[in-house]
Automatic annotation (TrEMBL):
Residues 1-403 form the Major facilitator superfamily (MFS) profile domain. This is OHS family lactose permease-like MFS transporter. The keyword Lipoprotein does not apply. Keywords: Cell inner membrane, Cell membrane, Membrane, Transmembrane, Transmembrane helix, Transport. It is found in: Cell inner membrane. It is a multi-pass membrane protein.
C-alpha cells in the first residue's frame, strides 16, 4: 500500500511538472517570440495577453461549475490536455499567417487559443490536483513544488532552445502534453479519504444553487477577488514584459535572453525549496497574512525594478519571486478550504482567483503595454507598484481570517521522498 501511495505521489508530481513545463516555456519566452519573431510592438503584444484573459473570463465560471460537478472525474482535465497537444502545430503553421493577415485579429485568435491551455486551463489543473491530493491525504504544497522544478528546467533549457530555433519552444510544449496525457490516464483517485464522517458527508452532498449563491454573499469572496487583482494580476502583468525590459540593458539582446533564462531557472529552483517549507509557515501565520506578505514582496519587487537598474539588482528583484510565488499559491488554497465550502473549492478557485485575475489582466495588460510605450518601463513600474498596495490593502480590510486548520498529511510519504 505504501508503494502505491508513493507511486500516486509521483504521478501527481509528474502531472504538475509537465503542465508547468508548458506554462513556463510559454510565459517565459512568448514575450521574446512576439517581439523578435512576430515583430509586434508592446501594445499589440499586450493585446495577445488581453485576449488570453478575456477568453479565460468566459471559460472560468463554466469550468468551475463543471469541475465541482465532476468531482474527481478527469474529463475536463482531459480536454485541457487535448488543447495543449496542438500548441506546436498552431504556432508553427497558423499564428504567424494570422498575424500577417491582420495583427489585431491574429493577436486575438492566438491569445484565445493559448487561453484554452493556459489562463483558462490552469484553473482546471490546479483545482483538480488540489482536490485529488486532499482526497489522497497529501499536503498540496509538497506536490506543487514539482511545478516549480518544471519552471526551473524550462527556464534553463528554454533559453538555449529559443536562441537556436524560436519555434522549438512550442513543439516542446506539445511533447510535454503527450507525457501529461499519459500520466492523467494512469491516475486513479478514490473518494475523499477522511476520518471525519461529517466532512465525508459534506464532500458527498450534491452542490445546489443555494450553495453557489452563498459564495457571492460572503464578503470574504469579494475581498479575496480584490486581493487577487492586486497580487496575481499584477504578478502576471509585471512578468509579461519584464524579459524585454531586462534584455534592454544588454548590448547583445541574445546574451540578455540567455542570462535572463539562467536567472529565471535559479529563481524557480529556489521557489521549489520554499514550496516545501511554505505550508508549515502558512499554517503558523494564517493564509490571509500569507497573501498580504506576498503582496508586500510584489510591491518591493516592482518598485525596486523601477529605481535600481543595475543588472545584478534586476536579477535580485526577479529572484524575490521565488518567495512570493509559494506564499501566494499555498495561501490561496488554504484560504479557500478554510473559509468556503470545500465542495465548491473549484468554483471559488476559478472565480475568486482565476476569474478575478483575468479581469485584471484583461484591463491592465493593455493599459500597462500602452504606458510602457508612452512613459517607459521605469515610470510605469512606479504606477504599477502603487496599484499593488491599493488593491492588497482594500482586499485585506474586507477579507475575514480563515478558520484555523491543521490538515492531515502523509508525513511518512513526505519524509521518505
Amino acid at each position: 500500500m505504501s508503494n502505491l501511495k508513493q507511486l500516486k505521489f509521483w504521478n501527481f508530481g509528474g502531472m504538475y511538472y509537465f503542465y508547468f513545463m508548458i506554462w513556463a516555456l510559454i510565459f517565459a519566452f512568448l514575450p521574446f517570440w512576439l517581439n523578435k519573431t512576430a515583430h509586434l510592438d508592446t501594445s499589440v503584444s499586450g493585446l495577445v495577453f488581453s485576449a488570453m484573459a478575456v477568453t479565460a473570463l468566459i471559460l472560468e465560471p463554466l469550468y468551475g461549475l463543471i469541475q465541482d460537478k465532476l468531482g474527481l472525474k478527469k474529463y475536463l482535465f482531459g480536454f485541457v490536455v487535448l488543447c495543449l497537444l496542438f500548441i506546436g502545430p498552431f504556432v508553427q503553421f497558423a499564428f504567424i499567417p494570422l498575424l500577417q493577415i491582420n495583427a489585431v485579429f491574429g493577436a486575438i485568435v492566438g491569445g484565445a487559443f493559448l487561453s484554452l491551455c493556459l489562463n483558462g486551463g490552469v484553473g482546471v489543473v490546479e483545482a483538480y490536483i488540489e482536490r485529488s491530493t486532499r482526497a489522497s491525504n497529501y499536503e498540496y504544497g509538497h506536490v506543487r513544488l514539482f511545478g516549480s522544478l518544471a519552471g526551473g528546467t524550462a527556464a534553463f533549457i528554454g533559453g538555449i532552445m529559443f536562441v537556436r530555433n524560436p519555434y522549438s519552444i512550442f513543439w516542446a510544449c506539445t511533447v510535454s502534453a503527450i507525457v501529461l496525457g499519459v500520466l492523467l490516464w494512469a491516475l486513479r483517485v478514490k473518494n475523499v479519504d477522511t476520518s471525519s464522517e461529517d466532512s465525508k458527508e459534506n464532500e458527498e452532498t450534491p452542490v445546489t444553487k443555494e450553495n453557489i449563491m452563498n459564495v457571492f454573499k460572503n464578503r470574504s469572496f469579494w475581498g479575496f477577488c480584490i486581493m487577487m487583482i492586486g497580487i496575481a494580476t499584477m504578478f502576471d502583468v509585471f512578468d509579461q514584459q519584464f524579459p524585454n525590459y531586462f534584455t534592454s540593458f544588454f548590448d547583445d539582446a541574445s546574451r540578455g535572453e540567455l542570462v535572463f533564462s539562467r536567472i529565471a531557472s535559479i529563481q524557480v529552483f529556489i521557489e521549489a525549496g520554499f514550496m516545501v517549507l511554505t505550508p508549515w509557515f502558512i499554517n503558523k501565520i494564517g493564509a490571509k497574512n500569507g497573501l498580504i506578505l506576498a503582496g508586500i514582496i510584489l510591491f518591493i519587487r516592482i518598485l525596486g525594478s523601477a529605481f535600481f537598474t543595475e543588472i545584478w539588482m534586476l536579477s535580485l528583484w526577479r529572484i524575490l519571486a521565488s518567495i512570493e510565488m509559494p506564499l501566494m499559491l499555498i495561501s490561496i488554497m488554504k484560504y479557500i478550504t478554510g473559509v468556503f465550502d470545500v465542495r465548491l473549492s473549484a468554483t471559488v478557485y476559478m472565480l475568486g482567483f482565476n476569474f478575478a485575475k483575468q479581469i485584471g489582466i484583461t484591463i491592465f495588460s493593455y493599459v500597462m503595454g500602452s504606458l510602457y510605450k508612452t512613459m517607459g518601463f521605469q515610470n510605469s513600474y512606479v504606477i504599477m507598484s502603487l496599484m499593488v498596495i491599493v488593491f492588497v490593502t482594500i482586499g485585506a480590510l474586507i477579507m475575514k481570517s480563515e478558520r484555523h486548520q491543521q490538515p492531515t498529511v502523509n508525513n511518512n510519504l513526505v519524509a521518505s521522498r
